């Protein structure tokens, strides 16, 4: 969203009757002077998010209503790759969602546009923050203000089919990307897998996260400490990553990678037809579940391969629950945010623990790290020690918390794909992406 558009949208927000409560004193209601948390809202709360385990979310909302007496509609869900645009349209048009899922890459854009409200004004925020990791708090903060509570958090890890490696004569997973390509070649030659590698390179946010992971684990960076692009000038790592992917696409890398999100990666690993990938840690739970996988127990979690420069590299992410500025009952919405991202009325981490046990989703509520049930569950399909080791190589990405990043990223989806497919040269792609980043930074000043 460019500067001119942003100003126009803010004007719409101020004029829209949908946003009356925000204009008339959200802070007063947040401090407890407005709608009581125990008073039934004028209308049921509306929760909007992407389409993941919709039935589970609906069930959670019913528990929330039973515990609090605050009515909540069924979950309003949208396809993940359409979610950002659907929400922006709803913000401008006044669809009236109360609580919404937010990806870290959207936070600065939506907060700076006034579409979501900070939660620091609620009376119990300080005590809740004491039970969250500082890294998570930082990722949910924009311009010094906290904007929500965590839905889940995770890091990218390496996934490899141990049985494939043994059949090919390898005793250990690859330690570097070069070694991975070499092992993949042997696996292909022995007929174990036609395309041993699958990556999530679909034209959506997945391709950027996959590329970021590889750039970091190759020892490079995309932006400097001032969030200026270096991938087309001083740091040539992105060029090498794109060249390696291009050279191996349709040879060692499954060409279906170009339309694959994490869901397609999980299906391919679960079918036992692919050997290597990177994915968010919780995906290994599905891959190693006998009810959904043909190779349960064979796909192991490892450190993402490194290079001559670094042992490994990865990205971490967080998703959070935020309150829309169009919400007419912010105190009631805050009760829902706490129920979903913190504790229920019984003082239990009902929703975060459910996500962890049933679906393997990560968490940042510090008390849950000592939960024996959660630790046992994770080790049944993953490896808590690998997760801890991988965290040592997670690279900070402050550029994602800038108002211009989401627009830059969306443009980059197609640019990166065209470079991989050879429609545009890699050098030209990097120059275009760098110019786009610099132009957007100027427009948002």
> In angstroms, what is the radius of gyration?
22 Å
- Uncertain spans, ≥5 residues at pLDDT below 50? 1-38
Largest sheet composition: 8 strands, mixed
Let me know the average pLDDT. Answer: 90
Shape: globular
Number of helices: 20
Order of helices and strands: HHHEHEHEHEHHEEEHHHHHEHEEHHHHHH
Structure summary:
By secondary structure, the protein is an alpha+beta fold. It has helices spanning about 5-15, 20-25, 25-30, 55-70, 85-95, 105-110, 125-130, 135-140, 160-170, 175-190, 205-215, 235-250, 260-270, 285, 330-340, 350-360, 370-380, 385-390, 405-420, 425-445; strands at about 45-50, 75-80, 100-105, 115, 140, 145, 150-160, 275-280, 300, 315-325.
Layout of helices and strands, plus pairs?
Blueprint (H helix, E strand, L loop, with lengths): L2 H13 L4 H4 L2 H5 L16 E4 L3 H15 L7 E3 L4 H11 L5 E5 H9 L3 E2 L7 H5 L4 H6 L1 E2 L2 E2 L2 E13 H7 L8 H13 L15 H13 L19 H12 L13 H10 L4 E5 L2 H5 L11 E4 L13 E9 L5 H12 L8 H10 L12 H10 L2 H8 L13 H17 L4 H18 L2
Parallel strand pairs: 1-2, 1-3
Antiparallel strand pairs: 3-10, 4-10, 5-6, 7-8, 7-9, 7-10
Helix pairs in contact: 4-15, 12-19, 19-20
Give an overview of the whole structure.
The structure is a single chain. By secondary structure, this protein is of the alpha+beta class. Helices cover 46% and strands 11% of the residues. It contains 20 helices and ten strands. The strands form two sheets. Strands 1, 2, 3, 4, 7, 8, 9 and 10 form an eight-stranded mixed beta sheet that branches. Helix 4 packs across helix 15, helix 12 (237-248) crosses helix 19 and helix 19 runs antiparallel to helix 20. The model is unreliable at 1-38 (pLDDT under 50).
